[in-house]
């Protein structure tokens, strides 16, 4: 076994949301040397209060992250740094290019050969907020980098996001019980989301902005539940200090509501994995097995960047813990069940 270098890690974790932080804690407790690279751009940065996390209901998401980082700092096996990962590539052996040497990467999807020291990947990262760039090596990489959100292009919608408009129905539905609500979106899954919201409110209007797709059959089902479909083009969301008062249509009509939900477009931004070509689903999210393994051997994933997409904080944290156990067992070489 080759001697470990200072920039060799058992696991590099990309992303320090609840999935990445949870995985880092569990891997550190398994005495794995872990580097947690944190781009410091959480998807829920606009959310003031989080719900549904046992013992932490009502705590701001940034406070949950702070507490988790504080706990992680107590483990010498774990290192946290502000940095944005720019590439994860197969690591070639030290004698790569010499006659008779074997490549570390086979060129086939999901097949990365082992170097003598077990280090499979080279990870490059750009420093954030004055922190240095990093160039490190890892036996395994856990993708927990979350998603970038793009809201519908309404002039004032960003001012209400996280205050009067939310994206996580399970997280914020309770606080909107029995209010007249809006669901604003331009995607093909609006009907399913509307059915879920209708559990909390019987006064719901789905605004498609002339783009979102709801079939005639879906509309009939929603109408039976008292949900109205508004297909006209939108002008803006109106209100004051984050409190939603209504949705303004392009033709000038104002439809009163008292809050609601928005369905952003989500982008996993996985370009840094291009050299490994992992399988993605139709939404561009990483496909994994039940234990968090992607199609690229040695690459794991947990949290919002995996199918089916955005989850509650407690779900993401649980996924991070589960995948951490998988990584540890795989590094030991314990056969799968």
From TrEMBL:
Entry keyword set: Flavoprotein, Oxidoreductase
InterPro entries in the record: FAD/NAD-bd_sf, FAD/NAD-binding_dom, Ferredoxin-NADP_redctase_2
GO MF term list: thioredoxin-disulfide reductase (NADPH) activity
Catalytic activity field: [thioredoxin]-dithiol + NADP(+) = [thioredoxin]-disulfide + NADPH + H(+)
Start and end residues of each FAD/NAD(P)-binding domain: 9-320
Protein name according to UniProt: NAD(P)/FAD-dependent oxidoreductase
Upper lineage: Bacteria, Bacillati, Actinomycetota, Actinomycetes, Micrococcales
């Amino acid at each position: 076994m080759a001697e470990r270098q200072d920039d060799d890690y058992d696991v590099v974790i990309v992303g320090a949301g609840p999935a990445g932080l949870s995985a880092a804690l569990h891997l550190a407790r398994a005495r794995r040397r872990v580097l947690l690279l944190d781009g410091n751009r959480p998807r829920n940065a606009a959310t003031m209060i989080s719900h549904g996390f046992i013992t932490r209901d009502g705590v701001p998401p940034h406070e949950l992250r702070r507490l988790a980082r504080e706990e992680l700092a107590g483990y010498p096996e774990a290192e946290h740094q502000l940095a944005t990962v720019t590439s994860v590539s197969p690591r070639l052996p030290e004698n790569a290019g010499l006659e008779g040497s074997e490549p570390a990467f086979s060129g086939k999807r999901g097949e990365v050969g082992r170097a003598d020291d077990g280090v499979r990947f080279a990870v490059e990262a750009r420093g954030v907020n004055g922190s240095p760039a990093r160039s490190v090596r890892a036996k395994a990489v856990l993708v927990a980098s979350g998603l970038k959100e793009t809201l519908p292009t309404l002039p004032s919608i960003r001012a209400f996001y996280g205050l009067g408009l939310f994206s996580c129905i399970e997280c914020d539905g309770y606080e909107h019980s029995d209010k007249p609500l809006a669901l604003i979106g331009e995607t093909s899954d609006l009907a399913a989301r509307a059915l879920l919201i209708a559990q909390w409110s019987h006064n719901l209007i789905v605004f498609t902005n002339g783009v979102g797709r709801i079939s005639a059959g879906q509309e009939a089902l929603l109408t039976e539940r008292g949900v109205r479909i508004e297909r006209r083009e939108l002008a803006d969301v109106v209100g004051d200090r984050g409190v939603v008062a209504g949705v303004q249509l392009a033709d000038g009509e104002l439809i009163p509501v008292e809050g609601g939900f928005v369905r952003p477009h989500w982008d996993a931004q996985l370009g840094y994995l291009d050299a490994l070509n992992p399988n993605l689903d139709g939404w561009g999210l990483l496909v994994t097995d039940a234990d968090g393994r992607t199609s690229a051997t040695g690459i794991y994933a947990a949290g919002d960047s995996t199918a089916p997409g955005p989850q509650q904080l407690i779900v993401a944290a649980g996924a991070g813990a589960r995948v951490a156990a998988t990584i540890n067992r795989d590094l030991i070489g314990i056969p799968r069940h």
